[in-house]
Amino acid sequence: MKKIIVLFSMFLLLTACGPAGNAIIEWVDFIVWKDTHYYGIYSGELSDDTYVGDKLGKVKFKVADNITNTNYKIKHGDAAFLEKGTQIYKVKGFSDLIVVKDSSHINQYRVFAANESGFDWHFKDVPLEEITKILIYKFVPGENHQFIRELKSQDMKVFIELLKDSKEDENYQPNTFEKDPTTYTFVLYVDGPIAYKYDIHFDERNYYWHPWSTNILSEEIEPFLKN
Q1: Which of 76, 86, 174, 185 could form a disulfide with 82 if both were Cys (CB 3.0 to 4.6 A apart)?
Q2: Taking the mean position of all CA atoms in its chain, how far away is CA 169?
Q3: Is 124 strand, coil or helix?
C-alpha cells in the first residue's frame, strides 16, 4: 500500500455528475475532528488494545449515502463511512492516531492516522529488524479472519526473505475465471501501537501480493499459509 498522504480535496472522488452540482461520489475513508483530518489505514492494525486511550468523541455525521452535492464542506465530526454516534478513541501516547471499534479488523479496531502523521505503510518502510512476531490468517467470507499460526525465530526470518525475494510483475493477471483467489493476511508486529498488515493471494496458479505493485511469490511460501 502506498503511504497515505491525501490532500483535503481528495476527500471525494467524482464518478458521475448530475444536475445542480450533484454527483455519485466515492469517498475515501476519513474522520474530521476539530482541525485534523484522519484517514483509514488499510495496511495497519492496532497492535494491542492496551493502546486504546480515552474517548475523544462521537461521529456527528456520516457523509457517504447522505451527501451528493460536490460543494459540500467537510466539517468537524464528519466521517465517510462511520455511522452517527460511533465512538472515537485516542491512542495512548500518539496524538496523530485515533481508533474506532470494528469487528471486521483482526484486533477489533480500525486505525485512522492524521494526514501528516509521519507513519509509513509501504512494505519497504517496515523496520524488518524490529519485528517481534508474525501472525498469519486466512480470510473466510462471512467469518472474516481465521487464525492459522504465529511465526517466531527462524521461521519468521525465512518468511520475510520470501517476501523480499518476490518478483515484481505489473502485468500479471490473476486467474479469476472460476472463483475468487484465496486470501491470506499476515501481520508484522513491532514495538508500538501499529502492526503492519498485508495480504497474500492464491489464484490456483501463483501466490502473489502487493507491496507496491503486483509481486509473484515463490511456492515456498505455501507451508506458512496452510493449517
Answers
A1: 86
A2: 22
A3: helix
Residue range of the domain that includes 134: 123-225
- CA dihedral sign of residues 160, 162, 168, 172: negative
Based on the fold, state whether residues 156 and 100 are members of the same structural domain. Answer: no
Whether 3 maps to a domain, the answer reads: no
Predicted TM-score (pTM) of this structure: 0.86
Instruction: Write the pLDDT tens digit of every residue in 156-171.
Output: 999 999 999 999 999 9
List of residues 6+ apart from 132 with CB closer than 8 A: 189, 190, 191
11 — phi, psi (to 5°)?
A: -60, -25
DSSP state of 220: G
Residues 6 or more apart whose CB falls under 8 angstroms from that of 178 comprise 204
Q: Which residues pair with 197 in a beta bridge?
A: 187
Q: How far is CA 94 from the centre of its chain?
A: 18
State whether 128 and 190 are in the same domain.
Answer: yes
Report how far residue 97's alpha carbon sits from residue 108's, in angstroms, rounded to the nearest whole number.
16
